[in-house]
Design brief:
It is built from 13 helices and eight strands. 58% of the residues lie in helices and 10% in strands.
Length: 356
């Protein structure tokens, strides 16, 4: 390399400590901003270009880069989300906390010709904003942020691995196949977005039905069960009783494991679950007092109500020993554990005088 390139690399060496400081600051800022904005990305990746990579770029494009510090992607961030709607949502959040340079940024979703080969993403060139408490010497540096969905990221990685950066480098006999796959991925992204919207609409309807007491015929699934726990007046009242008994707070927990358990005892709909709660309420409360009184817990799982009405049905529901074994096999995939659980239930039956 020539003397000019050596001088430019000296700029890189002198600024490397600042690059590292910016990388740390921005990585933490991005994570905090997105989480507070209600988006949990799949990944926030970041890197500083290596000296060798910078040297190669200077050699290839010496006229374009009179200084290392005009390379906008020396510090690079990639934020990968799950759904296409989140790309613009994330970009809007980032634009509130960083200075985005609109002239240097690019939205490949809008600039790529319909017939061109390749997949889409949004690129921002940013700086740390002045007068926001950041070291003044760091606010002059630019860095790049790429926003992509999981599928866009997968495409970009495969495309990079194959070594084809433009459609002109692709053999004619495979260009059509590349375009077809890119189109399929774009359709898949849109389809996942539509599925998310449908689920959101479904959950809203479920919630409204529960609040209006018209949800009895809704079949149990993760959405209906979750909404029931959060919005059923009967379940909320029962959970309040449990929390008041022990002076504890509820900890958010997914109720997914209870779908199979409830199905095993014949609970198929929200109406069935309502009746189970009504019929086993007193029994469940009794079991809870016996089980938790000495525990001195500060927190209870949000599924504690399900646990005790399910347990109460096993104890007071008249199931045979063989039926209990079959019900409990899902939770305890071990013969000894199942046997111990069944014996525990039978002991409770004898304690409460319910054993025939």
């Amino acid at each position: 390399m020539g003397i000019l390139s050596d001088l430019r690399l000296a700029e890189y060496d002198e600024s490397l400590d600042n690059y590292k400081k910016i990388e740390i600051i921005v990585a933490e800022l991005l994570e905090k901003t997105l989480i507070e904005g209600g988006i949990r990305p799949m990944q926030i990746a970041h890197r500083i270009k290596t000296r060798d990579s910078v040297a190669g770029k200077l050699e290839r494009k010496s006229e374009k880069y009179p200084s290392v510090n005009v390379m906008n992607d020396l510090i690079g961030f990639r934020i990968i989300c799950y759904f296409i709607e989140q790309v613009d949502q994330m970009a809007a959040l980032v634009a509130k906390v960083l200075d985005v340079d609109p002239k240097l940024s690019s939205d490949k979703r809008k600039t790529m010709a319909p017939t061109a080969f390749g997949y889409l993403s949004l690129h921002y060139v940013c700086r740390l904003p002045k007068n926001q408490g950041y070291p003044e010497e760091l606010t002059s540096y630019t860095f790049e942020i790429q926003f992509r969905t999981v599928l866009q990221h997968a495409w970009a990685e495969i495309e990079h691995d194959l070594g084809y950066k433009t459609e002109f480098g692709i053999p004619l006999d495979v260009r059509r196949e590349f375009s077809r796959i890119a189109g399929l991925l774009e359709i898949a992204d849109e389809s996942f977005h539509e599925i998310k919207l449908r689920i959101r609409h479904y959950v809203e309807n479920v919630r409204a039905a529960i609040e209006e007491d018209t949800a009895d015929n809704l079949r149990l699934d993760l959405n209906t069960l979750t909404e029931y726990l959060h919005h059923s007046k009967a379940m909320q009242s029962f959970l309040d009783e449990l929390c008041d008994l022990f002076g504890a707070e509820l900890l958010e927990v997914s109720p997914e494991n209870y779908l199979r358990r409830l199905d095993a005892i014949g609970i198929k709909t929200l109406g069935d679950l309502n009746r189970l709660l009504e019929e086993e309420h007193d029994h469940a409360l009794t079991l809870a007092k016996e089980t938790l009184t000495a525990a001195e817990l500060d927190e209870l799982a949000g599924t504690v109500g399900l646990y005790f009405i399910f347990r109460a049905r096993l104890v007071f529901g008249g199931f045979t020993k063989k039926e209990l074994v079959k019900i409990l096999e899902y939770d305890y995939n071990n013969d000894d554990k199942v046997r111990n659980q069944v014996e525990g239930i039978l002991r409770l039956r004898r304690l409460y005088g319910t054993e025939e």
